[in-house]
Amino acid sequence: MTLMVLFRTRLEWCNYTCHYCPWNANEIRVESDAFRDDEARLNRIIERVAGLSQRPVEFFITPKAEYLVLPYWRDAVRRLSALPHVRRVTVQTNLAWDVASFLPTVDVNKLALWTTYHPTEVDAFGLEALHVKWEALRSAGVRFSVGIVGTRDNLDAMDALRRRLPPDVYLWVNAYKREGAYYTSHERQRIRTIDPYFDLNDQIFPSLGQPCTAGSHAVYLDDEGDLRRCFFVGKVIGNLFRDGWQTLPAPTSCPIATCHCYVGHMHVVELDFRAVYGDNLAVRIPRRAED
Ligand code: SF4
Ligand code: SF4
């Protein structure tokens, strides 16, 4: 079985200033040394992964907050996806980088992109450029989804995006959970017409004691090589440099009260996201009826 590796480094940096995000560029400033250190730690991880050829893995790179704008990260994705035992590399990105130049340099069959649109960060010209990038991904056969945060202010942009994107491109809407009982029933209904899986996302799952495949089918890898079940459970279960891909032998109950978002929900046995998303679980593309 291919192990899903959720990976992020300690770098917290983004080029955008989305007000709904704690990692926006207004809040977080990073010294140039931090990028050099990040590149060095990243290289060390890739070299170690290259040497662990016995176990097939897929990477799901989930930054805090944008990596692919950085050339050394694009190079890292290229190098990871060139490894025979790395089956796929999925990356969350706002696409604010040169997609057309990157695609010819990477194995497009292994690349997958969870792309996001942030209306406050992209003017009309920028939105046209985004559509050109999505079309380039489509033409190249790259798996990708498009997402938007479901704030009230974003709902008109959500509708416009759905009208403009090809019907076969899945548009998901991330539930805004910072304020309890945020949505009216009309708003909820409106979002469901765009994203039929919105309700799956719009939940805080009571996970304590519930079986979860995080740790057995998937692990969270940090830039020290430490392996944990997921982003939310702090206990280290092994280290990549010392132990290789150390995992738990079977799905295990969750030790914390609640599980909040897609990157956690995707592992919960009861929620069974595999049935909805199949092999495109990391890139968040639901199966079609004919799959
Ligand atoms: S693009 Fe994503 S990571 Fe960057 S500020 Fe906006 S929400 Fe946060
Ligand atoms: S239920 Fe969520 S928080 Fe608990 S172990 Fe699974 S992924 Fe982690």
Give the averaged pLDDT, no decimals: 96
At CATH level 3, the topology is TIM Barrel
State the secondary-structure class.
alpha/beta
CATH architectural label: Alpha-Beta Barrel
Total domain units: 1
List of distinct ligands in this structure: iron/sulfur cluster
What's the total number of strands?
15
Largest sheet: 9 strands, mixed
Shape: globular
Strand order of the largest sheet: 8-7-6-5-3-1-11-12-13
CATH class category: Alpha Beta
Residue windows where pLDDT falls under 50 for at least 5 positions: none
Helix content: 25-40%
Rg (CA only): 19 Å
Word description of this protein:
The protein is of the alpha/beta class. It has one domain (3-280): TIM Barrel (Alpha-Beta Barrel), CATH 3.20.20. It has 10 helices and 15 strands. Strands 8-7-6-5-3-1-11-12-13 form a 9-stranded mixed sheet. It has a two-stranded parallel sheet with strand order 2-4. Helix 1 runs parallel beside helix 2. The protein is globular, with a radius of gyration of 19 Å. Bound molecules: iron/sulfur cluster (2 copies). The site of one iron/sulfur cluster has 13 residues, from loops.
